[in-house]
Amino acid sequence: MDPEALFVYGSLQFPEVLFTLIDRVPDHSPAAAHGWRVATLPGEVYPGLVPGTTTARGYLLTGLTPDEWQLLDAFENPLYDLTRLDLLDGRHGWAYVCNPTAEVGDDDWSAEHFQAQHLPAYIERCAAWRRRYDQQEQAS
After folding, report:
1. Catalytic one among 76, 103, 124, 137?
2. What is the 8-class DSSP label of residue 11?
3. Residue 76 a catalytic site member
4. Contact assessment for residue 87 and residue 61, using Cβ atoms and an 8 Å cutoff
5. Do 55 and 126 form a contact (C-beta atoms < 8 A)?
6. Which of 51, 47, 58, 59 is CA-nearest to residue 35?
């Protein structure tokens, strides 16, 4: 599979997180997908995308390299499936969507709350993950 663009709606919409994970911030533009909800996940600071009656807002990342796709696939929790979405403006994008067995919260996730309360610690967590990923890649 060679996805053309990635719709991000949660922690990956923050440039600091992208830079920590893939060493750059890809080209991106605002995007939205109707019929989806950005939901809280119990015990997590990042969200999940689930079918809903609202419009999920985020960004469409373009120009990701195959190595960057591989890294992001490894980073994403196994509760996500990569799913192609139709966006409101007629574009398409792939998104990490919660699989049907995932437990999701009743509340919508707030990017503002995440940024104010969790972003610095989350960036550190991403940096630690990236170090482990690089070590595993070098060992294989």
Report:
1. 76
2. G
3. yes
4. no
5. no
6. 51
36-54 pLDDT, tens digit each: 999 999 999 999 999 999 9
Q: Is the torsion defined by CA of 50, 2, 128, 135 positive or negative?
A: positive
85 contacts 33 by C-beta, under 8 angstroms? yes
17-27 pLDDT, tens digit per residue, is: 999 999 999 99
Q: Which two tokens stand for residue 11?
A: 């922690």
DSSP alpha helix (H) spans, 27-118: 66-75, 111-117
C-alpha distance from residue 1 to each of 36, 54, 66, 105, 113 (Å)? 23, 29, 10, 31, 34
Closest by CA to 67, choosing from 23, 28, 27, 98, is 23
Q: How many residues does the chain have?
A: 140
The SS3 assignment for 55 reads: strand
Q: Which fold has domain 5-139?
A: Hypothetical upf0131 protein ytfp (3.10.490)
Alpha carbon distance 40, 107 (integer Å): 6
The Cα 33–Cα 57 span in angstroms is 7
Does the predicted TM-score (pTM) go above 0.90? Answer: yes
